[in-house]
Amino acid sequence: MPANGQNRHARTSRIARKLAVAGTGAAVLALPLIGAATASAATPAATTTATAATTAYPDNLDGWIRESLDIMAQHGIPGSYDGIYRNIMRESSGNPFAINNWDINAINGTPSKGLLQVIDPTFQAYHVAGTSWDSYDPVANITAACNYAADRYGSIDNVFSAY
């Protein structure tokens, strides 16, 4: 089931549980092979499977940016840690629940939201597959905003003011 609409903590907990189960499963599969003639050939494969699991990112600004950068790399979206961080600090001071209720977008009924202050139509148009459809989700917000900035300005690194 996709993580769309789930909060970040629930997704992280579910992934941690899956990793724990996968790690246990790999160990259980490897146990019967100990002492067997083919154990040396099978053990590296079991170890590789257990260690090739999903990268765990901390549930903080650093982790959100790093996870977004990995997703962006998979989709060919340019951007750097410094460019993303600089824009987040200007737009929301790192608050993933920031909302702008006073500018023209808000007056028109579509306030800017999240770390990079994206309006819903822009978020939906530039949403990146594999991320949540919740515009307050930090990774989804960063990744969609960077996708928009890449389309409009070449990269989030080229954005130095409200965009």
Helical proportion, percent range: 40-55%
Strand order of the largest sheet: 1-2
Shape, per Cα inertia axes? globular
Average pLDDT number: 78
Spans with pLDDT under 50 lasting ≥5 residues? 1-52
The secondary structure category is: mainly alpha
Oligomer: single chain
Number of helices: 7
Helix and strand sequence: HHHHEHEHH
Distance between the termini: 34 Å
| Cα-atom radius of gyration | 20 Å
The main pleated sheet reads as:
2 strands, antiparallel
Q: How much beta, percentage-wise?
A: under 5%
Number of strands: 2
Give a quick rundown of the structure.
The chain has 7 helices and 2 strands, in the order H-H-H-H-E-H-E-H-H.
